[in-house]
Write a structure and sequence with these properties.
Layout (H helix, E strand, L loop, with lengths): L29 E10 L17 E10 L14 E9 L2 E8 L12 H7 L2 E2 L4 E2 L1 H10 L4 H7 L14 E2 L4 E4 L5 E10 L8 H6 L7 H11 L5 E10 L2 H4 L18 E11 L4 H6 L12 E2 L4 H17 L2 H6 L13 H7 L9 H10 L2 H15 L5 H14 L1 H14 L1
Antiparallel strand pairs: 1-2, 1-11, 2-3, 3-4, 5-6, 7-9, 8-9, 8-12, 9-10, 10-11
Helix pairs in contact: 2-13, 3-11, 12-14, 13-14
Length: 415
């Protein structure tokens, strides 16, 4: 089956120009392209969603973005990248609004506003306040996994084409028989992972603020259409009650040995937008956009985003978004009970550093650990408050004792 939908061109609608679109508060710096998703696997046993049935092809809109970057900022900063995919299906629009990281800094929406403040630029808008940043990280141990990921090589992807994408949150799939499953989305780049070192990123001229956007557009113009292999990890519904780990904890990944990747299909970008404002910026990706066969989980951060994105787009894109948007997804219809809701907020604070340590010891090679160490040392050397610096050093001791000792030695040598 092939969807008859086409990529949205908002300027073609009768309300041709809804007026200026306000700058996004978060993920404001970005760009994207259009293409298609082709199902190549058979996951019909897990979901009735039409777009994931065998031999289905649907159009997509994809937007990549910065997290702390603003319009006019450089795209070579060390930062998380947003990776949002809008699937234009026969059942409506399905938005997978994720990042290029499988985890996030937080699992509790109550501290999100503080996270935003900690990551803001200051002074002339080009540098971080490392005291403020590390003060937040070290007082929130659940950030350890994302901090280690961000400060490693993948913190500065060479291009949007050379990075993976993740749904990050746990989502729910429902098959035709009404059976429920928990899933994690993985979008693996077919171009291969590539990154910039800090030195390479610094060498990119300040005037080349849009080098990642330009790279994507040029690649598509050359016919080198980037693609990603889309897979999922699938967990039986009841496993979330009995597994030793919290399946809804956004700061953790699921073990691959227990929940291996199952291929779903291929995402291809093969067309640059003719009008980026109409086709990308007004696409208004929102986690509340679901289709039958797909729903949310009791992940607190996901439920917060489901409400917040929908409300903000009503303000930002105004009547145009309201015209085509569904009502926010109601958690009371999501199928889980109070036991799972409580489970989603049951966290083991003693386990916050384990996966960060695994990343450092098992995923990175010696050269990768050396580059990570250099990045950490350069930031800790900028901290003014010695108490915060000491907390940061203890933070790394908890991630990995040997790595923490080497970082401490190098920081003392440069101070």
């Amino acid at each position: 089956m092939t969807s008859t939908g086409t990529a949205p061109r908002r300027a073609d609608h009768p309300a041709a120009d809804p007026g200026p679109v306000p700058v996004r508060i978060r993920h404001s710096k970005g760009g994207g392209a259009l293409g298609f998703f082709q199902t190549t696997g058979d996951v019909s046993a897990f979901t009735a969603a039409s777009l994931f049935q065998p031999d289905t092809r649907v159009d997509v809109v994809v937007r990549f973005s910065a997290t702390v970057g603003f319009r006019g900022s450089r795209e070579a900063w060390r930062d998380l990248r947003g990776f949002a995919v809008k699937f234009l299906t026969d059942d409506g629009e399905y938005d997978l609004v994720g990042n290029n990281s499988p985890v996030f800094f937080l699992r509790d929406e109550a501290t999100f506003a503080s996270l935003v403040v900690a990551h803001k630029m200051y002074r002339d808008g080009t540098v971080f306040d490392y005291d403020r940043l590390w003060d937040f990280w070290t007082t929130h141990p659940e950030t350890a996994h994302q901090v280690a990921w961000l400060l490693s090589d993948r913190g500065i992807p060479r291009s949007w084409r050379h990075q993976d994408g993740f749904g990050s949150h746990t989502y729910q799939w429902v098959n035709a028989a009404g059976e429920r499953f928990w899933v994690k989305y993985h979008l693996r780049t077919d171009q291969g992972i590539a990154y910039l070192t800090d030195e390479q990123a610094d060498a990119i001229a300040d005037t080349e603020v849009d080098h990642q956007r330009a790279d994507l557009r040029a690649a598509i113009d050359r016919g080198e259409n980037p693609s990603w292999t889309v897979s999922v990890q699938v967990m039986p519904y009841e496993d979330a009650r009995t597994d030793a780990f919290n399946a809804f904890d956004l700061t953790k990944v699921w073990p691959r040995a227990e929940y291996p990747l199952i291929e779903v299909g291929t995402l291809v970008l093969d067309r640059n937008p003719d009008d980026e404002l109409a086709e990308i910026e007004q696409a208004a990706f929102a986690p509340s956009s679901f289709v039958p066969g797909i729903g949310p989980s009791p992940d607190p951060m996901l439920l917060s985003r489901i409400d917040a994105y929908w409300r903000f787009h009503q303000h930002r894109v105004k009547e145009e978004y309201a015209r085509r948007a569904a009502v926010p997804f109601a958690p009371v219809d999501a199928g889980w009970d109070e036991d799972l809701a409580r489970r989603a907020r049951s966290w083991d604070p003693d386990d916050d550093f384990r996966q960060a340590g695994d990343l450092v010891r098992r995923v990175l090679d010696d050269a990768g650990r050396e580059r990570l160490r250099a990045t950490v040392v350069s930031q800790l050397a900028e901290i003014v408050d010695p108490a915060i610096r000491e907390r940061a050093l203890l933070f790394w001791d908890r991630i990995d004792v040997a790595e923490g000792a080497e970082i401490r030695s190098q920081v003392q040598a440069v101070r």
